[in-house]
Design brief:
The chain has about 140 residues and is α+β, with helices and mostly antiparallel strands. The protein has one domain. It has helices at about 1-25, 30-40, 60-65, 65-75, 100; strands at about 45-55, 85-95, 105-115, 115-125, 135.
Length: about 140
């Protein structure tokens, strides 16, 4: 009888964990994460995992810092119209990205969104120093 109860408890725990993982994968992703993931997949990148989903108010002060300059110098757009506005930033680990041909190790991309539209982003190799690349690895 004890074996039956232990088996039942183990099976119950296993089924419970599986359902939780499915809910997190399908239903708990923010709209920004879904948009950014779809955008990257359309470019042919294999999205491995979500690292973060955050936001940042773009300020003139930030744009004058080295990280701000490096980040916005590789964008296809000027940051001027986003000053004082909130940019959503979704970061993923990806594969099949142009930087995979240049660097070994993990490649991450940060997708910038404004009002649910992708406006740019950055990519970088985690194990290497230096400034960020454009979203496409240039």
């Amino acid at each position: 009888m004890k074996k039956f109860v232990l088996f039942f408890l183990f099976l119950f725990a296993l089924v419970g964990c599986s359902e939780t993982e499915q809910v997190l994968d399908k239903e708990q992703l923010s709209e920004n994460v879904k948009i950014a993931k779809s955008y990257l997949e359309e470019k042919g990148y294999d999205v491995i995992s979500l690292v973060s989903d955050s936001s940042q108010v773009i300020t003139q002060e930030y744009l004058e810092t080295i990280p701000g300059q490096q980040e916005w110098n590789v964008q296809p757009i000027a940051p001027d119209k986003y000053i004082g506005k909130t940019i959503d930033i979704v970061m993923f680990v990806v594969e099949d990205h142009p930087l995979n041909d240049k660097y070994h190790g993990e490649i991450r991309v940060r997708v910038f969104l404004y009002e649910k539209e992708v406006i740019g982003g950055t990519s970088f190799a985690v194990d290497y120093d230096g400034g960020p690349h454009s979203l496409e690895g240039e």
